[in-house]
Amino acid sequence: MPIDKKPLINSFENMNKFYFFDVNKNKIINVDEETYKALNAPETTGSSELPSIKKLKNQGYLSNNRVEKIEHINGRMLEELLGYNLRKIILQVTQNCNFRCNYCVYSGSYVNRIHSNKRMDFATARKGIDFLIAHSKDSKEIDIGFYGGEPLLEIDLITQCMDYAVKAAEGKNVTFSLTTNGSLLNEANVKRLLGYKLRITVSLDGPQEVHDKNRTFASNGCGTFNAVYNNIRRIVEKYPEIKRNLSFSMVIDPTAQFNCLDEFIAGEEEFFNESAVMGSFISNVYRDDQLQFSENFVGEWEYSKFRFLLFVLGKISVANNSQLIRAAYREHFEYISKSHREITPLAKQDHHSGPCVPGQIRLFMSTDANFYPCERVSETSDIMKIGNIEDGFYFDKIEELLNVGKLTEENCKECFAFRNCRICASLSDDGNQLSKETKLKACQDVRFNVDEMLKDVCTLKECGFKKEMIQMTTGF
Amino acid sequence: MNKESVLIYPYDSQFTPLLRHKGFVDNYDKIQLSSLPGWGLCGKDASYADGGEFIGLTVSQEFDEILSEADTVIFAEADNPYHLEKMIYPKIFSAIEAGKNIVTLIQVDEKADEIKKKCERKGVRFTNYRENSLDHTDFLDQMKSEFKKEIVDSRIPILAVIGLAEHTNKFQLQLDLKATIENMGYKVSMVGSRAYCELLGFHSFPAFMKEVISESDKILCYNRYIKRIELTEKPDLIIVAVPGGFMRYNNKIINDFGITAYEIFQAIVPDAVVLSLFHEKYTVDYLDGIIKSVKYKLGLEIDAFNISNRQIDWVEMTNSQPDVISTLTLNPEFMKKSIEECKALSQIPVFNILEKGDAERITNLIIDKLSEIEMAVNF
Lengths: 476, 379
Ligand code: SF4
Prior knowledge:
heterodimer, A: alpha/beta, TIM Barrel, ten-stranded mixed sheet, 17 helices, B: Rossmann fold, 2 domains, seven-stranded mixed sheet, six-stranded parallel sheet, about 40% helix
């Protein structure tokens, strides 16, 4: 059968049962072995179709409908989305930092991005805030973020910006956010930040031995854990209300032990309760060398995930319910909670999920007032420069970044992960250009993860999992 | 008579249809607009709010500074959320202090008396268009006295204007259709979809439809209400607009489950129907689904689609699941292209009321249809 006449599905076995995931329907179907084999036969021999397959086809499954052209629907309305619907601007108030973290994109392990003394002045920051207000008439609320380097080195500028924004955006719900290493979250600074609708994200990587491995002071090379930990303890004690607006970002080092991270969060119940903990692995994007996961780490991680599933299913009572593990199941639960919905088949012109409109959701403005899609991309990568405060947006570049699927057009048209893909331009940037090779490497991960997710979902179903359990046991 | 100078506050897209309506604009010598800076309209032409044609009035961020030039201040209803205590009342009181007449389209119930007293003291006019006094008793009493609780047929053609949801430029559509039909020499009565239509010289959506009376009484009252308009105003045509939408959007945004629309179309049977939709990249199947839904839910055949220059903001709707539909404004060039694409798909004529000439084109289509009906030998 010519490939484009084949149904667009991913068939798989799980716990001695047979399934296929139908991309057009975004649903998993459990079939008998005979049907499964027929679906996986290399070619139909011309013999008549199995009744089970006929029935599925009648119900709209097993369609060979495919996207014919990879084109993001939002590419047609970039002027509107970026003209009336900006959500957030992240101001890089300084490139300077009092830490030197091994994996920090500015600390030298990454291509080109390094710390410097560049800082933003108020006039530039103000233009950025005005730009956001002037481009967000259709946004229900807007957010102004402060990023560095270490942004609290510029606390005067930050408070000046917040005061200005509250006035300048009167009538709109305006919130603020700040990503900090926590070392300057002392009482004096915190006092100045109270009273604003400000969310603070502190980078804390785990217990002292883990945190200090990667995060040291620039001045003396000593570990920073104690300074951060004690600061947070002190301010939370003094201003308990701040807890709700505090979250922790944990950069997980896969060369370390996972258990000790997990236990740290579970053990510091009082410290972390009410605050969100977001875990992410050290990024390999833009990195000179590639990080390898230690065997121990993988084993512990998988085991913890497994125990979490048992907990969710009520099979074990001890809650290995740490926020890190929960985050690992976000996609599963997202899929489960929407699994009953009927969705329209793939359009003739469509784009895989993953990219957001560059700049719309988290427009990043560097100290020298250039625009980037978000804070995660390297501001030294020329293709990621999508405008600046004087010229506004470079729509051609934005359209190219949005339509990153075109790089791998033929692969995407045949890919079962099309609707659950997470790849955007940042994962396709090799430092100089958007690269098909770089993107295809990321594809392998995505496809592996989606396949695993589908299998996990089937396992959960087999074990009696119900949609309602998501909320009840996991706090999602 | 000398025309007044008027200041509109807080200005946003909800008011823009009035600025595009001769019947409103011609009443004033000068119109000034003041908005809140966070709404993103200040310093721009008023048309920036709805994305339509240039209007020629710049939106100001100032209020007190431009107040002196106004005789009257209209406190308008807005699409953006606002805070009465912080943003509206202080401005009303300072306008009264400055000796300006006050018009409220915004609901000021709790302070209405205070405003009234202050205005009297200061010797300025206070007109509150939200005092919609039309209740059900009139109609129910009438039916009781006639010993008849039944529907009466209308002898006059009715044009219905409905919208799939809020923010589909339905108000603009009503105003433009009314004006265009009147320009052709017809007498038009209209029941608008908003609560302050008397400001523009036609009827607001009647308050009894929101009262706690039985649903069938609402239907009967609405039927009598339209009949009364027919008998007292003797128009050639009645335009009936339905507030809100008629389809549940999701579990949270329910558009009153289309109950109001259903009741109205139990009360009256329109002779022509225009439906306003959000912009979307429509497919034949989707449009077909809408046509069927309107047909089987409300019993109506659609004569024309008005595709608004607003599209649902899918990112916001999926990510934050807000309580109201969040939309994005689309530019005129984009709309032109998209409407052409849509025309090729649709069996029903497609228009965009913000496009020059489309009000006339819809009107011609409706008048053609209605005159066909008139040619029939009916009694
Ligand atoms: S995983 Fe790769 S091939 Fe599959 S949809 Fe995503 S980008 Fe395309």
